[in-house]
Amino acid sequence: QVQLVDTGGGLVQAGGSLRLSCAVSGSIFTLLDMGWYRQAPGNQRELVAGITRGGITNYADSVKGRFTISRDNAKNTVYLQMNSLKPEDTAVYYCNALRMLSLGTKLNYWGQGTQVTVSS
What we know:
About 0% of the residues lie in helices and about 55% in strands. It is mainly β.
């Protein structure tokens, strides 16, 4: 079983910072590719940042240079450090885990979401 609990959202002023955390249960964390997605009202859910089981990262163009994704395998936790926040970053942020059972079988797991609101 894989369960995700994402926390750390809140209300901040433009230019401020937040750190999101995603705690992953189970014993296969090192085998999971992890990511942070966000969804604003009326918009589709989009990938913000991802990190593979090998530590390779990727970011949406809109957050490059401002957000940093990292993982602590000893704590089974993935983080999203968000700096220089903008009002357009306002959304519900969701932690995601990809479990690859084989080349043809994959499972996705989602956290419950945490609200990030950036005021201007």
